Amino acid sequence: MDTQYYMLTIYQPDGPAPGPDVMDPILRRLAALNREMKEAGAWVFNGALHEPSTATVLRPKDGEVLMTDGPYTEGKEHIGGFTIIQAPDLDAALAWGRKLAEAIGLLPIEVRPFHGVGG
């Protein structure tokens, strides 16, 4: 079976993370979903990111590479984490994306295939 790799990106609003009363149930649901993905052979890896203020941006300009602190763009939301999966097609990837959206609740999930990887 041919597979394609997909990135399931979690977007979250800027600002402090919710407290344990909100986060603990979400983290339990995410752990259960990660186990389900692993058992199905879909999970490749996942990760949570630090706040955008911890980012460093490298930008080529005039033959040099400039380095600046902070996020690449200013916005009202940022990438908070991601999961890389393998799936036979977009429909299967979207099904995992739906489960991720349900596990997290309220936050949007972007499902996007990798170019030239898998298939």
Topology of helices and strands:
Elements: E1 4-13, H1 20-40, E2 43-48, E3 56-61, E4 64-69, E5 77-87, H2 90-104, E6 109-118
Antiparallel strand pairs: 1-5, 1-6, 2-5, 3-4
Helix pairs in contact: 1-2
Could you say which structural class the secondary elements and strand pairing correspond to?
alpha+beta
The Cα radius of gyration reads 16 Å
**Helix segment count?**
2
Principal-axis shape? flat
For the record, give the distance between the C-alpha atoms at the N and C termini, rounded to a whole number. Answer: 9 Å
Tell me what portion of residues adopts beta-strand conformation.
35-45%
**Order of helical and strand elements:** EHEEEEHE
Helix content: 25-40%
Oligomer: single chain
Main pleated sheet: 4 strands, antiparallel
Low-confidence parts: none
Tally of strands = 6
Average pLDDT value? 92
Spatial strand arrangement across the major sheet: 2-5-1-6
At a glance:
The protein is an alpha+beta fold.
Keywords, separated by commas or semicolons:
single chain, 119 residues, alpha+beta, 4-stranded antiparallel β-sheet, two-stranded antiparallel sheet
Overview of this protein structure:
By secondary structure, the chain is an alpha+beta fold. The chain contains two helices and six strands. It has helices spanning 20-40, 90-104, and strands at 4-13, 43-48, 56-61, 64-69, 77-87, 109-118. Strands 2-5-1-6 form a four-stranded antiparallel beta sheet. Helix 1 packs antiparallel against helix 2. The chain is flat, with a radius of gyration of 16 Å. The N and C termini lie close together (9 Å).
